[in-house]
Write a structure and sequence with these properties.
Elements (H helix, E strand, L loop, with lengths): L4 E4 L2 E4 L3 H12 L4 E4 L16 E2 L11 H11 L6 H20 L14 E2 L9 E2 L5 H24 L6 E4 L2 E8 L9 E8 L5 E5 L2 E4 L20 H9 L3 E2 L4 E8 L13 H4 L3 E3 L23 H9 L13 H13 L9 E4 L6 H7 L1 H11 L8 E10 L2 E2 L14 E3 L16 H23 L9 H12 L16 H15 L6 H18 L12 H25 L22 E7 L24 E7 L5 H4 L4 H7 L2 H5 L1
Parallel strand pairs: 1-10, 2-3, 2-11, 3-7, 11-18
Antiparallel strand pairs: 4-6, 5-6, 8-9, 9-10, 12-17, 12-19, 13-16, 14-15, 15-16, 19-20
Helix pairs in contact: 1-4, 1-11, 2-3, 3-11, 5-15, 9-10, 13-14, 13-15, 14-15
The structure holds flavin-adenine dinucleotide (FAD).
Length: 656
């Protein structure tokens, strides 16, 4: 039996970004003793990087906006593959979540008449993004942290201990969700196995409810706007605990990342640049987006530059410019221009605000972008165009959850919210809809996790010591890894990571082909076998190579899900573009792809998780199944014109 520290909590929230903090606040306010654990410093979650804003139909800038319009835009953006109940709840509850933030101290930019200001973004019919310059995520995190501190101060007054009912474990990683084996409720959650990154010390948080709020997967790709934490941990933790992932083929490539200099390639250039009037041009100086308006959006976008420009001043009588099409459309268009030889010197296209706004307005509305380009690329965006190109940004696929309760399918006690959860955004997320998603479903996850935990009435799940031993052995394996060649060094985790990123970028990237994805799966099989021999030197203290060796398991699992699902879906839709199947097929609208762990030897209790690689490299670790979605409720369908529905829904759905 492994000796380690154990603590008991009612709810454990993994992740301290927007989703995790909102979940923790709700759980604590509902009376649950709540622990938050995050692998970065408290405050340095991905959410802090969010720039443009939070989408919510508060109708502060255009009074025609309401939740129904927001719902429609979200469904259109996701090409109707969204879990519609999530899209409904999200559109209905987002305004309350923003106003609530304000009551907790958030300082949003204001309109002239003193309301929370809202800005335009791609795919949103009206100005809808509540924002704080281009640093909205920072304000969101600051406010949620302030709320947490306020709750802790309450506990200090009541119990004499700040951490009596809400404690943050920062710079600690969860490597396994633990489960009670053979319980009458079917392997319910019993806690989390964790380690301190600084010291390498293992510990266990025992809890009947675990909320996964770990964010995305971008670090599996070479060019990404995501930071080091995005290694798909929550996705993998859920798979290993027995929950399915849904629609993992949908990965969002944001159209505008920096392309130069090489050291900053992939860093995000916020969509606010286009929302505030920035235009895209190719090397001929042409505003090429007018050539890329797809049929499904033809009636909603301007046909001429003059009309597009008029829209900024008079949106009620003009159509929006095509630079504000949903992200998948813009990213594909940029890709095509570069491929056709009309790209910028460093392989992107030009994004220009300098000819569209006075310098002082640019500096006021886009201060971070101004500094980012000045400091990283020595480009003054008030005087010259930026060079931009697609970058892996967001994953629409994620843990399959119940729409209302955020509970993970099939694993009692497991919940998921934020980017790690799937379904809400369908095949493509609209900008601004992530921050609102974090708040709406973070709150719901916290609420239902607290209720679930309280409902057990003292019958807490038992901890399985075998799982703790196995988790400890798994985490220590990189220190004793051996090369198959006597005397040779074990595999280097950094080399494996680089090869993985290159594979995903080249073979499962923005434009996909059958043969390349098959090749990717083979390569992933090879990398998986090598990753089991990934070794590190030294000891557990301050050892980033060790952390990466552990993260590789997660990135490989998630990458296989993406490649396998992308190969299966023989159509192009949202964040999944097949060169060999270039059109969106109505028959595919109702089909979700579910990934489950096939190699049960990786799950606890069913084999030796520390043994030799049990998988056939081509067969892999993931089982894929098709699942038909529930029909969209009639009152929600009635929000759309019939002519529009005909473009998306399958024949039998229209008939129904
Ligand atoms: P995060 O905020 O990333 O939090 C994840 C947390 O999980 C972190 O605390 C991390 O340390 C922790 N964690 C991960 N793995 C583990 C583990 N194994 N153990 C313990 N802890 C773990 N969206 C918008 O809506 N509007 C915008 O304007 C916008 N701008 C963006 C700009 C940039 C540059 C980027 C990259 C994204 C932007 N997005 C935007 C997207 C949005 O920021 C993210 O989707 C969102 O913040 C994800 O929040 P989250 O709470 O799910 O995860």
């Amino acid at each position: 039996m492994t000796e380690l520290e154990r603590q008991q909590w009612d709810v454990v929230v993994v992740g301290a970004g927007g989703a995790g903090l909102r979940a923790a606040i709700e759980a604590r306010e509902r009376g649950a003793r709540t622990a938050v654990i995050c692998k970065s410093l408290f405050g340095k979650a991905h959410t802090v990087m969010a720039e443009g804003g939070i989408a919510a139909s508060m109708a502060n800038v255009n009074s025609h906006d309401n939740w129904q319009v927001h719902f429609r835009d979200t469904m259109r953006g996701g090409k109707f593959l969204n879990q519609w109940r999530m899209a409904e709840l999200h559109a209905q509850e987002a305004p309350d979540r923003v106003w609530e933030l304000e009551t907790w101290g958030a300082l949003f930019d204001r309109t002239k008449d003193g309301k929370i200001s809202q800005r335009n973004f791609g795919g949103h019919e009206y100005p809808r993004l509540a924002h704080v310059g281009d640093r909205t995520g920072l304000e969101l995190i600051r406010t949620l942290q302030q709320k947490i501190v306020a709750l802790q101060q309450e506990d200090k007054r009541e119990f004499g201990d700040y951490e009596a009912r809400l404690k943050v474990f920062q710079e600690c990683t969860v490597t396994r969700v633990l489960k009670e084996q053979g319980s009458k409720d079917g392997d319910r959650v019993s806690g989390a196995f964790c380690y301190e990154r600084e010291s390498g010390r293992f510990f266990v948080l025992e809890a009947p409810a675990v909320v996964l709020a770990t964010g995305g997967i971008g670090k599996s790709f070479k060019v990404t706007s995501n930071s080091w934490e995005y290694t798909g941990d929550g996705h993998a933790l859920a798979l290993l605990a027995g929950a399915p992932l849904i629609n993992m083929e949908f990965v969002q490539f944001h159209p505008t990342g920096m392309v130069w200099p090489p050291s900053v390639k992939g860093i995000l250039v916020t969509e606010s640049v286009r929302g505030d009037g920035g235009v895209l041009r190719n090397s001929d100086g042409k505003r090429f987006m007018f050539d890329y308006i797809p049929d499904v959006f033809k009636e909603k976008y301007a046909e001429t530059e003059a009309e597009g420009d008029r829209w900024y001043e008079d949106p009620d009588n003009n159509r929006r410019p095509p630079e504000l099409l949903p992200r998948d459309e813009v990213a594909r268009a940029i890709n095509s221009e570069v491929k056709a030889g009309r790209g910028s010197p460093h392989g992107g296209v030009f994004l220009d605000v300098s000819t569209r706004m006075p310098a002082e307005v640019i500096k006021r509305r886009l201060p971070s972008m101004y500094h980012q380009f000045k400091e990283l690329a020595d480009v003054d965006i008030t005087a010259e165009a930026m060079e931009v190109g697609p970058t892996c940004h967001y994953v629409m696929g994620g843990i399959a959850v119940d729409s209302d309760t955020a509970s993970a399918v099939g694993v009692p006690g497991l919940f998921a919210a934020g980017e790690v959860a799937g379904g809400m955004h369908g095949s493509n997320r609209l900008g601004g809809n992530s921050l609102s998603d974090l708040l709406v479903f973070g709150r719901r996850a916290g609420l239902h996790a607290a209720e679930y935990s309280a409902g057990l009435a003292g019958e807490r799940p038992l901890i399985d010591e075998v799982q703790i031993d196995a988790a400890a052995a798994e985490a220590l394996r990189p220190f004793s890894a051996e090369s198959p060649e006597p005397g040779a060094a074990p595999e280097n985790p950094y080399t494996l990571h680089q090869e993985l990123q290159q594979t995903m970028n080249d073979l499962v990237g923005i434009i996909r082909r059958e043969a390349e994805m098959a090749q990717a799966l083979k390569k992933l099989g090879d990398l998986r076998a090598r990753a089991r021999r990934a070794g590190v030197e030294g000891h557990r203290q301050f050892n980033p190579g060790w952390h990466l060796a552990l993260d590789l398991r997660n990135m490989l699992l998630v990458s296989e899900c993406i490649a396998r699902s992308a190969l299966e879906r023989t159509e192009s839709r949202g964040g999944h573009t097949r060169e060999d199947f270039p059109t969106m097929e109505r028959e595919w609208r109702r089909i979700n792809l579910l990934c489950r762990l096939a190699d049960r030897a990786l799950a606890f209790g069913l084999g030796d998780s520390g043994g030799p690689a049990p998988t056939d490299p081509v067969r892999g670790q993931i089982d894929l199944a098709r699942k038909t979605t529930e029909p969209i409720r009639h009152d929600l369908l009635a929000l759309f014109e019939k002519e529009e529905l005909v473009k998306y829904l399958a024949e039998e759905e229209l008939y129904e």
